Amino acid sequence: MTKRVAVLSGGISAEREVSLVSGTQCAVALRDAGYDVVPIEVGDDLAGLIATLQSAKPDVVFNALHGRFGEDGCIQGVLDWLRIPYTHSGVRASALAMDKIAAKMAFQAAGLPVPMQRIVSPEELAAEDPMPRPFVVKPPNEGSSVGVSILQAGDNRRVDIARAWTYGQQVLVEEYIPGRELTVGVLEDQALGITDILADAGVFYDYESKYGQGGSRHVLPARLHPLAAERLMEVAVAAHRAIGCRGATRCDFRYDDTQGEPGRIVLLEINTQPGLTPTSLLPEQAAHVGIGFPALVSWMVEQARHGP
Description:
Elements: E1 4-10, H1 16-32, E2 36-42, H2 46-56, E3 60-63, H3 74-82, H4 91-98, H5 100-109, E4 117-120, H6 122-127, E5 135-138, E6 149-151, H7 158-163, E7 171-175, E8 180-187, E9 190-199, H8 207-211, E10 216-219, H9 226-243, E11 248-256, E12 264-271, H10 281-288, H11 293-303
Parallel strand pairs: 1-2, 1-3
Antiparallel strand pairs: 4-7, 5-6, 5-7, 8-9, 8-11, 9-10, 11-12
């Protein structure tokens, strides 16, 4: 019997447009793989979404939502309540991973390498530098590098950033790690590979670099010391387990090789809803090890379940 899969995309976060692209690509691939696909564009009408899901009666929900309300445990809780199996992580892991402050505490407890950080208010950020420069300023609960800035020596944007802050009353400030931007995709308990990300659109892997055409170049597999490569793969799988994730995740790292290799590995965050757009990293890594896109999304559907 053919499985009916409802593909959720859109949402109400800052990453809505990215989610729509992911959802379209996933729906096409799932049809190619033989599933009965019902695309559902999600807006701000939760009651309407519930009614649509109850009417569609899917066997599985493919969650292609990104950002707040899509990967922070909110929609996962709704789907648990409806008892509909869904792709990616459950409520607890999703909420924990989306909260960068709480996630780092979990990583530290598991003995994983994380950057030095401080949590300050926008007013404290406006008043003075929270730590020696260079440092990174980011929202605690956004994805896709939304709201992220790097403040180097001589940069006078700090007060303007603080006054224009729209991400709540907490600002996450991290030490800036020089070197390279690396990412590792994980399918359940298996690391796929290591990608070296060379951002062309800016000084770091920001939103435009991630999703704009030509915004970045990906070197896969990354060229680095074998001991560093082995450790990166280990840390990615350990982070997946530390948060209690399931299905597919992707861990982002900084790798400081400025003093030679093997260098310093620093885990920045884990993504429980990795992008599935034409420029996304997880599908690229899967293809590199022989898993085509229809096979990848099919694997996600077959791994789907509800509950923690």
